[in-house]
Every structure is written in structure tokens, then in C-alpha cells.
Amino acid sequence: MSLETTAGNYVRQLQHAGLRPGKRLVDLILASGDAAVDPLIDLATSIPLLDEKPPVAYAPIHALRLLGELRPLRMVEPLLKSADAAFADQNHARDIWQQEMPQMIGRSGGSAVALLWACVDDPNRSAIEHDMALLAL
């Protein structure tokens, strides 16, 4: 079994983790490093899951927080593009995602600044994407 497959399996388990994933699962995902990034991005940007009943509703939030720990620059673009969908409706899980998304991008530090300013300066981006990029800065 490849590391990418294993990492993807660990990330999928976040849909059953409830309010707080276990330390072992978190450690396994973080230890997977780069192999976990794409599955985490996919889960973090699965905005319709935020409307499901718990524990599934918390999976995108867990993925978002783990991305904040791993700090991959390639998370910036898909997260910003998901912001419009996240603001389409309101519920508790969406509120958490909306508040934490720019913080997790911000944890990338100076390496994300150019990507964020490019989003702010792009007239084709939505107002929400601009706002989220500014919050992340």
C-alpha cells in the first residue's frame, strides 16, 4: 500500500472523528506529511459536508486545522475558492470553517503573502475571496 493511499485512508477517518479526532489519528496524518496534503485539501474544501449531521460535519474543519499544521502553500488557492460556498448558508460548522480558514492560511507565514496579495488584486475574484485573503494576511 502506498503512502498516499494510507494517508488518504487516515484522512477519510476524520469523517467519523466527532468533535475532536484522537491524538493517534492526528499523529498518523501529520506523520504522512506531503502525502496527506491533497486528501486534506479535498476534505477541507468539501463544503457540503458542513451541512451533514455530526460527526461528518466536523471533518472539513479537522482537515482545515491539520492543513494549518502542515502549512502547504498549495492549500491557499483551493481554500480561497471554497470561501464563496462556505458563506452560502449558515450553520455552526460553517461558522467555524469561515473563522478558521484564513487563520490556517495565515499560519503559512511569509511564503503565502504573494499568493494572498495576488488574490486581493485579482478583479475576477469574489468579494468573499478578497476578504478571506485580507484576513489571512
Question: How would you sum up this structure, described in words?
Answer:
The model has no long low-confidence stretch (mean pLDDT 95). The chain has 8 helices and no strands. The protein is 64% helix and 0% strand. It is globular and about 40 Å long. The chain is an all-alpha fold and 137 residues long. 35% of the residues are buried.
- Helical percent range? 55-70%
Kindly state the mean pLDDT as a whole number? 95
Structural class per helix/strand content? mainly alpha
What is the radius of gyration computed over CA atoms, rounded to a whole number of angstroms? 14 Å
The quaternary state of the protein chains shown equals: single chain
Largest sheet: none
What is the H-and-E element order?
Answer: HHHHHHHH
Count every helix, treating DSSP H or I runs of 4 or more residues as helices: 8
What form results from the Cα inertia axes? globular
Tally of DSSP β-strands: 0
Uncertain residue segments: none
Percent of sequence in beta strands: under 5%
Rounded to the nearest angstrom, the distance between the terminal CA atoms is: 39 Å
